[in-house]
Amino acid sequence: MSMKPLLALRHAAPVITLLLFSLSLPAQTAAPSDPAATRKARALFGSLHETQGKCILFGHQDDLAYGIGWRRQAGGSDVKAVCGAYPAVFGWELGRQMGDTILYNIDSVGFADMRHWVKQAYQMGGINTFSWHWDNPKTGADAWDPTPAVADILPGGPLHYKLIDQLDRLAVFFNSLQAGPWWNRHRIPVIFRPWHEHTGSWFWWGANNCTPEEYKQLFRFTVDYLRQTKGLHQMLFAYSPDAFRDTAEYLRNYPGDAYVDVMGLDYYYREPRLPFIGADLPEKLRLVAQLAAERRKIAAFTETGLESIPIENWWTQMLLPHLAAAQNPAQHSGIAYVLVWRNARTNHHFAPYPGHQSAGDFVTFSRDTRIMLAGPALKNMYRKEKRKK
Ligand code: BMA
Question: What pTM did the predictor assign?
């Protein structure tokens, strides 16, 4: 190359910089809690924030892995089989325990398969979110063993090494979720929802099994370790209490704005409680949406469902109006996504399947303009990229 083009290039450099800078100007003001979040994680956060209040993304746990009467079939999805579209949000589970010889999660989903499906979901613009039912590190029993263990795994505790071991393994797994061609290979941004449903006491990290201070320390340590020690910046973190009475209870274990991106709610519809929930949920979802809006966070109904959906029109008569009650488009406030739990078997499923009595109502729900499933609009989820400062 002669000197002239080189010089031209040198002079063009500030112009290019300015151009890139101005391209990034209309970037969202709402940003992830991690100041060093990757471009894709920023884009995801920004898109969710922008969508919030306008429409609600529909999600399903283990959607691509199995459903009623099938398992591990290419293209399989009960949601798609019923309404013609894949969900927009895909939930995955990391428990019981990660280890050198452990190939499957608690629900017999292989981690290698999961990696493949996460990528598939991402390539359609879908959002991947992870739950973690980690075994009780003190007793070795499952996550539902309420024996207190949080103090033991905090720094200085006798079992701290077990937490480090699991977080190291989670980091390897999260980092293995990658996409893009060689010139733009990147880590897939994910929403991680650790230590969920803590307002209940069924997990060893639940309300009666550790103090709010211990819980906050555990949450902060988890985030700091993954973010700072392991250098994971593709992560958004969800804080997801179960049923709560008021703002004070919702926020009692809140680790702080620097540690949370999604303010969630895990709350199931259960038949004996249905009239109560019917009255209660719009208000609770509104409260979560408001708390999130005040902090410029994302609000989400991070886990819900009505087991086996015995109410034919539950989708349009309960879930949809409850979600809609929290929407406030003018303020970008509302519930950004809802995730229903897994389709394990006919007496433990939360999405419909072909032939199910609520299938027709689900189709109506899925076509409502306020509900978004996979499709062309979802393709832009990771495109509104704010450049890293
Ligand atoms: C529960 C049930 C269990 C499952 C666990 C973790 O709600 O669905 O069957 O093992 O979640 O995914």
Answer: 0.92
